[in-house]
Amino acid sequence: MSDSIAMMHPMPVRAGIGLRAPHVARVLHEQPSIPWLETHSENLFALGGPLQDAMTRIRENYPLSLHGVGLSLGSADRVDAAHLRRLQELVDRYEPELVSEHLCWGAVGDRHSNDLLPLPFTEEALHCVVSHIDEVQNALKREILVENISTYLRFDGADYTEWEFVTEAVKRSGCGLLCDVNNIYVNSVNHGFDPHVYLRALPRLAIREIHLAGFTRKEGLSVPVLIDSHSRRVDDAVWDLYSEAVSLFGQVPTLIEWDAEIPELEVLMDEAAHAQEILDECEAPPA
């Protein structure tokens, strides 16, 4: 990462929520007490319109994180220059406290997947993703965060475990880490590893944000499978893992994600309040 890249204003070390379309009007007009908000970058790529206008006004009252889903950092293709340019314009406009993307791939040429696809944990894939993270950070002239994703299959021939791969990507690129605790738990069940080993291996000082969400269980299968559906309250097992994460990493800005079967805003705020209780109980200094 170049020396000209620096961290922006810090995000409040509190529990925020992901802002989705059903709640934009309430947040805009009622300004509920929420420490910070996160929205998907690609939803704001269109120039002008009511959503851009609303977000511009909301931004005046809330710290903001831009969370991307389409940059395809792990693709063997070059970084999409048009996508990166739109992201840069968005960052210049909103000046968010945090900018994040997923550690995955999702496009080949002009064909895009609706899912975040897993990477092979190989040296070749690591070199590719680090190069792309470096390109994005240099273009934006700021640190980005990368998020560990939930997965349902793995490639043979790995050189690294998942947690080793995530850690190496962060260390070699100099980016920050968005630690999705729910994704760690989902993958631990789907792939049969110890989530506590994963947590303890992560680079503590690079963790800038934590995500929490609810999952669903696939029924009628011969093996347990969890789906990262973002359609439920956070599971008790994930709350327990989150408590361990906070004890390991210190107080870290934490976000409640909910993207399907979206409930009333009060439900998200209630989940955020529970996360805040756990943050408040932490005696470790911020990471």
Lay out the secondary structure.
Layout: E1 15-18, H1 21-30, E2 37-40, H2 50-59, E3 64-67, H3 81-94, E4 98-102, E5 105-108, E6 111-117, H4 123-140, E7 145-147, H5 162-173, E8 176-180, H6 181-191, H7 195-201, E9 207-212, E10 216-217, E11 226-227, H8 236-249, E12 254-256, H9 265-281
Parallel strand pairs: 1-2, 1-12, 2-3, 3-4, 4-7, 7-8, 8-9, 9-12
Antiparallel strand pairs: 5-6, 10-11
Report on the structure:
With 287 residues, the chain is α/β, with parallel strands linked by helices. The chain is 39% helix and 17% strand. It is built from 9 helices and 12 strands. The strands form 3 sheets. The protein has an 8-stranded parallel beta barrel with strand order 1-2-3-4-7-8-9-12. A two-stranded antiparallel sheet has the order 5-6. Strand 7 (145-147), helix 5 and strand 8 form a beta-alpha-beta unit. Helix 1 packs across helix 2 (50-59) and helix 7 runs parallel beside helix 8 (236-249). The chain is globular. Residues 2-7 have low confidence and may be disordered.
| Average residue-wise pLDDT | 94
Class from secondary-structure proportions: alpha/beta
Q: Which runs of at least 5 residues are low in confidence (pLDDT < 50)?
A: 2-7
Number of DSSP strand runs: 12
Percent of residues in beta strands?
A: 15-25%
Give the proportion of residues in helices.
25-40%
